[in-house]
Every structure is written in structure tokens, then in C-alpha cells.
Design brief:
The complex is a heterotrimer of chains A (225), B (223) and C (245). With 225 residues, chain A is an alpha/beta fold. Chain A is built from seven helices and ten strands. In chain A, strands 6-7-8-3-9-10 form a six-stranded mixed sheet, with helices on both faces. In chain A, strands 2-1-4-5 form a four-stranded antiparallel sheet, with helices on one face. Chain A is globular. With 223 residues, chain B is mostly helical. The chains are: A alpha/beta (225), B mainly alpha (223), C mainly alpha (245). At the B-C interface, helix 6, helix 7, helix 8 and helix 9 of B face helix 5 and helix 6 of C.
Chain lengths: 225, 223, 245
Amino acid sequence: MRTSSERRSTGTATAAVDLVGVTRLFGAVPALVRADLRIERGETVVLRGPNGAGKTTLLRVVATALSPTYGRGSVLGFDLVREREEIRRRCELLSHRTRLYDDLTASENLVFWSRLIGLDASGIDAALDRVGLLEVAGERVRGYSQGMRQRLAVARTILRRPELLLLDEPYTGLDAEARHAVDDLIRAAHGDGRTVLVATHHAVADGLADRSLHVDGGRIVREAP
Amino acid sequence: MTFVRQATAIAGKDLRIEVRGKHALGTLLPFAATLLIAFGFAFGPGRDVLDRTAPGLLWMAVLFAGVMAARRAYQAEAEDGALEGLLLAPVDKAAVFVGKVAAIALELIALVSAVLLLVVVLFDLSLGSPLALAGAFALGSLGLAAVGGLFGVVAEAARTREAIFPMLVLPLATPVLIAGVRATDLATTGRAGEALSWLGLLVAFDVVFVSVGILVFGSLMED
Amino acid sequence: MDVAARGIGKATTRSGERLLGAAALASLAVSAVLSLVVAPPDAVQGEVQRLMYIHVPAAWLAYLAFAVVFIASIAYLRTSRIRWDRLAAASAEIGVLFTALAIALGSLWGKPVWGTWWTWDPRLTTTAMLLLIYLGYLAVRRITDNPTRRARWAAVIGIVGFIDVPIVHLSVVWWRSLHQGSTVFRLGGPEIHGAMLVALLAGVAAFTVVYAYLMTLRLRVGRLEERAVREALSPTVAQVAEEDA
């Protein structure tokens, strides 16, 4: 077993995601059953599959929002169970729950996150501009539409520049402007050589995806190039 | 220091939300006032009983308000999954705890000050030695905030069993109630020196709960 | 840690269980004889004072059981081995029974002696708070069916609750000491000596053995519960669970 520092120095050699036999139960209901997943660094991979197949659970396990009931894995070289904070430092999950505070304005939300995580606050206005929210940045998020919320979440991710970007159904229920913002985000990450994992029914950003994996019954069942 | 910066960010955010939305103060202050007036009806109109029970009534109001304030602090995180956002953020979970406790404590202190004013008016309570009084309320608020801030996470996930939160907090916070009432009673009757040992108890309680909270809060957030 | 685990493992085999059961019965019998027959009646309170021989051991067990919950909770948070959670849960359930028993007997004893069912005696009051904290512990276990989350939450309550009990006790003792006027009733009497002390100690020993016996039963039920849960899973998942256990 290599130590953390050894792993980090051979950073580019390790996979971005490596799950082995991951099973996750909710009570008695299995959401993931012996799921194996391997994503190399720099890849953009799409997860497809019917509703309830386990895509969301899979992404949440990778993001460390859920721990595996059984099985093990590593994300960016860090152990899935024992080094969660290291994974969280480098990974961002975008889902329909935007994790924003309704009573704060858009700017205040971003300022809070940058102060919390130690991001460069000078990039906030630029990020808001990129997603087209600069004019309404002074309004409370309570009044935002779902599309605007998602765009704000995208702005937050632009500030963070995570090594591993996870997106769970990012296009659902969004207007065209918001969908463009998501595509831009994926394109930027792909261009930087960062890793992207998207679960969606839609087509992803001009077919940027290197490959797509089909999820069903709680595991990856087949692959398409 | 990162820890302080993170805790301040959390506390600042909570307080700003509270000031904007007036959630806690908007409902808690009327609640405490109603409670006190009801006590007035129940034990009055003769001054005698009310005078003797004023500290106790005051702290009962603070206790219930404290439970509600802590509960409310986590409900704001429930909107849109913000609590999970804090879990996934590369932030020291102990700093999240300290920040939340600080915010709840400050809200309670503000509430207590208003309620104290009310009690002075309704029950003609003399302030005695204000320093001891302030100490009792500050330390008591911190203690309640620490217990509530710790278990608020649990209550948030147990939404279908709302009653569990007060059931957890109240027995554990008993020393705060006893020490707070005794210290207040001694302070308002000019025996501030005797109140010192009760204040010491409150300090011990606060130290214990804040320390334990710092150690275990993170594990409460994980799934 | 491992020594304790192995000891518990030995005790919870079928033969260990039966041995403990026999020992419990025997020690209860000895204690009963000593407290009901051999020990003399109290000079002031009369025969009713014999309730002490059950009340005090029950209270002792209530706190011992909670101490076990405390230690097992710490062990679980350090090691994440579910066996410590199983131990804590079992001890909490048995502890609740002893706590309720201690309070009920304390009250029963108090009525003829103090003339009232409840006088906020410091130790009795603290034991009542202990009961409430125990109930909180058990209630938290019912919130979630995610076993790891349940174990973690319960462990936190187990630790926090145990640390709080001495603080609660101190505050109640100080609070009660305000009333210097009323006579301070010491449930144990000012001094216990001779046959009474022996009977009391026998009672404490007997109850400890009973606790150990009940624990082995409850741990066995706990293991059966987990097996039943595993069997309720689909075959594939059950297999994964088996491989991991």
C-alpha cells in the first residue's frame, strides 16, 4: 500500500476514479450492487441509463456524499473512505440541488463560498458575467428560477476549478442559456485536461465525451465508445 | 488562521440570513413574550409568586427559544441541500460547528436581552448586579447553542420525528437551566458573589460541550 | 480492546450463556437470603428498608450499563467495527430497565420514609435524568435504518450523555443544598455495617452477574437481527454482505 505522499507524486499515473465492487444500500434497497468504475484522468465520460439505475448514487459515492456500504475505491488517488476531505478539496458535484442560500444575494452566496473554501474572490464578477448573472447579482436567490440557480452553481464551479467535475442531470429543466453555461463548463474542464463525469439523457457539449457507460440495476453494464 | 476564517464565514452567513429573514427573532420573540404573559396570567395577579418565579420563568422561555433557534439554524441549511454542500466542501467540519454555535449563541443573547427587558417591565424584576446577570445569560446561551448546534444535524435528518430534538436537548441542558436560574436569582437579589460558583458550572458545561462538539460534529454530518 | 472483544466472544457462546445464567440465578438466591433473612431490619425504617438491597444494586447497574455504552461508543468511533455498536445498543436497552427499576424502587421506598413519592433527592433526580438521556439514545437509534449512520449518531449521544451526567448531578446536588432546612435523607443510611453491608455487596455482585447474563442474551438477539436483515436482502446483495462480514 503506497503512502499518500507517494501517490500524490505519481499523480498523473493514477486513475481519476477507481471503484471496486461498490455496493450501497438504503435500508434494504440496493442502489449500487458491486459497481466497478474506472475513469482515467482527463477523460470526459457520460453515464447513461434509465431512472433508478443508480447513476445519481454512483456520482454521490464518488463525490463522497455517500459512503459505500461495501466495497472500496479511490478518487484522484485518495481512499474513498479514509481520505474524504482530500477528495472533497479537488472534486465538485453539480446536481439539481444547488446548495444556495435563499436569503442571500448571488454575490453574497459566492463571497461566502470563497471565504469558506479560500477561493480568490476577485474572480467572482468575472464568473457571474460568464454565466450571464452579473446584472442580477444583487438580488436574493429566493427570486431566482431554477435555470438561474443552476447558472449560479456553475459560476461557483468556475471559481473552484475542480480536478474532477461531476454532473448529475445538469441539463434537466434548464433554459437554453443555462444549458450553454453547463456546456461551457464541461468544455473548459475538458480543455484543461481535467476529468469530467456526467450523468444525463441529453447530448453532451458537441460530443466531447470520450466514451459513455450504461448504468442499470446498480452497476455499469456496458460501454460505448 | 483557516479555522477562524471558516468559522467566521459560517457565523457571518448564519447571522446575515437571520437578520434578512428575521426567522428566529420574528417568531421567537413573540413566542417568549406570549409565554411570559401567559405565566403572568397563570401565577398572578399577586406580585408575590411572580417575583419569586421570575428567574425560572425567564430561563424557561430562554430554554424553549434556544431549542427553536437551534432547530431553525439547520432548517436554513435544508433549503436546497446546503447542509450537504457544507459536508462536501473542503472545510473543517469543526469550524462549521463553531460557526453555527456562535451564530445561535448571539441570536439567543439578543433574544434574552429583549426578554429580560420584558420581564423587568412585567414582573418588576430588579437588575441587581448586571455583570453577573450578563455572565449568566451569555454563558447559558452558549451552552444551549452548543447542545442545540450539535444535535441540530440529527434533527434535520429526522424530520419525520420532530419531537426528538427537544427530547435530546432538554435533559442534556438541565445544568444550564439550574445554574442559570440560580445565578440569575442571586444576581438580581444582590448576592453576586454567591453566583460565582454557578457561573463556574456554566463555564465548565460550555467548555465540555464545545470541545466534544468540535471532536464529533464531523462524524454526525457524514452519511 | 481486543482482549475485551475476545472475552465477550467467549461469554456469548451457548455454553458461556448457560453458565452465566446459572451464576445469575445462584447469586440472586444468595443475595435474596442475605437481604431478606440474614440482615437485620433497620432500627428507624423497619422492614421497608430492605428495598435498599434491590434499589442500590439496580442504580449501580444503571450507571455501569451507561459506562459500557460510553466506552463502546468511543470504541466504535475509533475503530468503526459494528460489534461495538451492537454492544452499546444492548447495554443501553438493559440499562434502561435497571434505571427504571431503580427509580421506581427509590420512589416506593421513599413514600413510607419521607411521606411523599418524590422529593428531588439528588441521586434519584440524577438517575431520572439518566433515564431520559437513555431514552434519547434509544430514540436516535430509530431515526435511520442506515446502520453506519445509526451507529455513529448513537455513539455521539452515548458519549455526550455520559459526560453530561456528572455535570447534571453536580448541579442538582448544589441546587438541593440550598434547602438546608429540610432533613437530608441519605437513602443508604448514615452508616451501613455488618450484615447489612454484606447483603448490599451481595446484591451488587448478583445484579452485575444478571447484567452480564442479560447482555449475552441481548447480543445474541442482536446478531440474529442482523442475520435476518441480511437475509431480507436480495441474494446478490446478501452474498456481498456475507463476503464482507
